[in-house]
Amino acid sequence: MTDLTTEQRQAFALASRYPAHVDAARLYGEEFHRDAAGLFRALRARHGAVAPALLEGDLPVWLVLGYREMHYVLTRPELFDRRTPWNALDLIPPDWSLQWILATESVMRSGGEEHERRSTVLHDALAAVNQFELRARCERIADALIDEFAAVGHAELMSQFAQQMPVRVVAWMLGFPLAEGPAVVRDLLILMDYTAEAPAAYGRLLARMHDLIRQRREWPTFDVASRMVHHPLAAPDDQLVEDMQYVVSGGQQPTAYWIGNTLRLLLTDTRFAMTLAGGRRSVGQAMGEVLWEDPPLANLSAYWAARACQMGGYQVQAGDMLVLGIAAAHTDPHIRPDQTTGAGGNQAHLAFGHGTHRCPFPAQELAEVIAETAIEVLLDRLPDLSLAVPADKLRWEESVWFRGLTGLPVVFTPA
Ligand code: HEM
């Protein structure tokens, strides 16, 4: 085996250990990014609700495309969990860019009683956020961001607005001192870019969280950090830091893309045409439609099979990894027989996950207030906002996980 190239070794491992994954669809690369939805349709036609697939590095996973099957995985913690070691760990290339899937030790990776304790702390700390104060703060932050570009008559709304909103609100809500806000914002945005700078930014963020915990232990105030530190079920500091870090970073991209995808819908779909003539559908309706049609988290990583089982006609082995296709499940013909009609006000989407690890309800509400306030303030301030490029020139991020725009250039009358 010593004379084999890395690719040959990988191919040999697939053939001997994961025969169903030989020549499986790749969830990366140009072809995938050109038309992920088309690929998922083809996979559903060929394999049904569960398909063998390959992550970057040709690492084998089961892609769950069916709504019912996804529901099944998310509600059977005894069968699918976050702790079972992956049986393909030895195949991971040393420079694998998806290492973060395995790296986190946050609430999201915990299970059983530990998960219950950590998610209760998070739930209680987030649920106590004052909704009036939150909305007022979101308005002020949105106004301040718009002030920076309102006079020039054009803007790129992803980087200048949508990406800036969640981190600013969450940094305030968690309790970072005002003076530290800009540094937290800068480091989080570096982290989200996954560049070579990311590990240093991550280290600085963790150090700031440790400081915040120390301060709030001595001088509690009315912020989320104080409530987490002084909660009767509070975890040791290292776990608290991981969970605070997840609150700041876990909501960042999904909320930013929720804002961006909704603005795109409002600006491109005549049903939402922004005219003063009336009859315009509401921002809330557009946000709800986006959760079905362009869910910001398009694919969810990762669950592992704790035991061998049958899924969608395939034999899944203990330790196999599953990727949950949220966007694909939303177009499952079993729940959407007529793909041309929208889901209306139906709330049964899986955009916030489901089951024990679903996005905590107070976090969902928080994200909704941030996104809705941001969009409403923007439309109020710049009522004749329109796209600066044809709609088909807008580009989606080349990510298997997220569904979000790389940019959203707009023009408007300078205000
Ligand atoms: C500031 C806003 C947000 C915060 C603070 C937040 C926080 C969290 C936390 C702490 C978890 C982990 C729950 C656990 O494992 O027990 C989580 C999970 C999740 N969140 Fe959010 N979230 C936010 C916004 C969003 C948005 C906008 C979306 C998508 C539309 C979203 C989708 C999800 C999903 C799908 C999960 C489940 C992940 C899984 O099963 O691994 N979140 N969120």
TrEMBL record:
SUPFAM superfamilies reported in the protein's UniProt record: Cytochrome P450
Superkingdom, taxonomy of origin: Bacteria
**What is a GO molecular function of this protein?**
iron ion binding
Would you identify the family this protein belongs to, as annotated? Answer: Belongs to the cytochrome P450 family.
UniProt protein name: Cytochrome P450
